[in-house]
Amino acid sequence: MDAVLVVDQDRLTRHPRELEEFIIVADRLGVPLANVAGEVDLGSSDGRFRARIMGAVARQESEKKSERLKRQRDQQARMGLSTGGPRRFGYAQVRDAEGQATMSVIEDEAIRVREAADRFLAGESLRQIASDFNDGGISTVTGAPWKVTTLRTLLAGPHVAGLRVHRGEIIGEASWDAILERSTWEKIRAVLGDPRRSQSGRPAQYLLTGMLVCGRCGATLYSSRRKDGSRRYMCNRGANEGPCGRIAVVAEPVERTAATQLLVALAGPDLWAALEGVDHIESEPIARQLIADEASLEELAKDHYVERVISRREFLAARDLLEARISKNRAAFRPPPTNADPLTGLPRSYEALVSLWSDLDIERQRMILKSVVEEVVVHPGKPGRRLFDPDRVEMRWLV
Ligand SMILES: [Zn+2]
Question: CA 10, CA 58: separation in Å to the nearest integer?
Answer without folding.
Answer: 6
